[in-house]
Amino acid sequence: MTAVPALDRGRPRSHAKRRGSRRTAKHPVAYLILSILALYAIGPMVVFVLASLKTPSEISESPLGLPGEFRWDNFATAWVEANMGAGLMNSVVIAVSTAVGVCVIAGCAAYALTRLDLPKPGVFILYLLVASSLPIQLFLVPLLSLWTKIGLYDSRFGLIVIYWAIYSPFATLLIRSFLIAVPKEYEAAARIDGAGEIRVFTRIVFPLVWPGILTAGLVAGLQAYNEFLLAVTFIQDSENLPASISLYSFQQGFSPNWALVSAAGLIMVLPVLALFIALQRRFVEGYTSSGMSG
């Protein structure tokens, strides 16, 4: 027997049916709005993909139309002329190194903030909030001078160190929100059994907060992969240029071929898109469960 909701028990059954029909009637409007938003988001990407398969003349004559012939050789040409192979390799090295370093730095800092008896921990939280909100442009000139003096200018490691510094504060706050939810009794029981701090963190705490650490690493890695200002400022050697700078240099040619530029841009986007699609569930779950999404 179907249970009648408490709010509808005192109402005629016909009224409940009308209510259900009104709710159903709203669905097409919601679907229409969502379809428009999806078209707004996906539409530029579709035009971008079509442009990468056209000739320059077809882009000029019909920017939104289909190509007369799908020119897949544009990707091979763009790969060679834009030096995207070396650019992608440099970007992967920079992004992975940034993600790993941020996870280690932020994980240790968050563990210290939540588990150690620090004097005035609110001061450290305020420092992290301020550090994560300040624009890097404020420190660009003195940082450039310092990096030149100590020999870190024009090197991938020097750029990675800067990324560690600017992405670790937010990652620390993110991982800290996970650690707060972990009961301290688990760690106390491990210490009674003779486990040290490192073993407690790696064997007890890390398995419980790894979604937050993964999310922090993904955010830092994607930011490092797409970052432009610091990369173009601190990297000059063509062999160390990341993909974003290789694409920019290719685009700034004397007579840019927009079909090849679109193909090179798509080559740069595809690795990040594939990674996000593969890990989107972990990313969204980690970000929303941290309590920092709103």
Structural class: mainly alpha
Q: Determine Rg (CA atoms, Å).
A: 26 Å
Extract low-pLDDT stretches: 1-10, 290-294
Main pleated-sheet profile: none
In the CATH hierarchy, the third-tier topology of the largest domain is known as: MetI-like fold
CA-CA gap between termini: 41 Å
What is the number of independent domains?
2
CATH architecture identity of the largest domain: Orthogonal Bundle
Number of strands: 0
Main CATH class of the largest domain: Mainly Alpha
Give a quick set of tags describing it.
2 domains, single chain, transmembrane, MetI-like, MetI-like fold, mainly alpha, disordered N terminus, cell membrane, 12 helices, 294 residues, transmembrane helix, transport, disordered C terminus
Report on the structure:
- It is a single chain.
- The chain is mainly α.
- It has 2 domains: 11-52; 74-289, MetI-like (MetI-like fold, Orthogonal Bundle).
- 76% of the residues lie in helices and 0% in strands.
- The chain is built from 12 helices and no strands.
- Helix 4 runs parallel beside helix 7.
- The protein is globular.
